[in-house]
Specification:
With 150 residues, the protein is mostly helical. 69% of the residues lie in helices and 0% in strands.
Length: 150
């Protein structure tokens, strides 16, 4: 999907609106992750993805054809630059929040897996046969796999 701009000034105005809306959505999502409430970010995912796709497409078009915005007034192009800088800053904030959430989640999964493994090992070491004699370690055939790249 592309912007339907009539001229360079119209294209810049539409890009400013798009960029500011994306900035707002990403900031809300970043705040949700910072507050450990990822469920609050979920309802915004579809709109954010749709707008991000338009933004990506339009950014690529402008890189390939700078004349698409060259005719816009300098004041408007400066507004677009500031909006883009604000968007970049909020993207960095969201990246930090997502990385922190990922680190916490991985730590929890690792701790749970280690505890399960320790419990299994303890249970296996305490195996006794019907006459009370100690039996060989048993294995239950199940496994826990941790993917360090998750």
């Amino acid at each position: 999907m592309a912007l339907a701009a009539e001229n360079a000034a119209d294209r810049v105005d539409q890009l400013i609106i798009l960029t500011e809306r994306l900035t707002k959505l990403v900031a809300i999502q970043a705040q949700a992750f910072e507050q450990h409430r990822p469920q609050d970010a979920a309802p915004l995912v579809d709109e954010t993805a749709r707008l991000a796709n338009v933004y990506r497409h339009e950014s690529a078009r402008i890189r390939a054809r700078p004349e698409l915005i060259a005719g816009a007034p300098m004041v408007e192009r400066q507004r677009l630059t500031r909006a883009t800088e604000a968007f970049d800053a909020v993207l960095a904030r969201q990246a930090r929040a997502l990385n922190a959430a990922k680190t916490v989640t991985e730590g929890l999964v690792r701790a749970i897996a280690e505890e399960v493994a320790a419990q299994r090992e303890k249970g296996a070491a305490d195996a006794y046969g019907p006459s009370g004699e100690r039996t060989a370690k048993r294995t239950d055939g199940s496994a826990i796999t941790l993917n360090k790249r998750a």
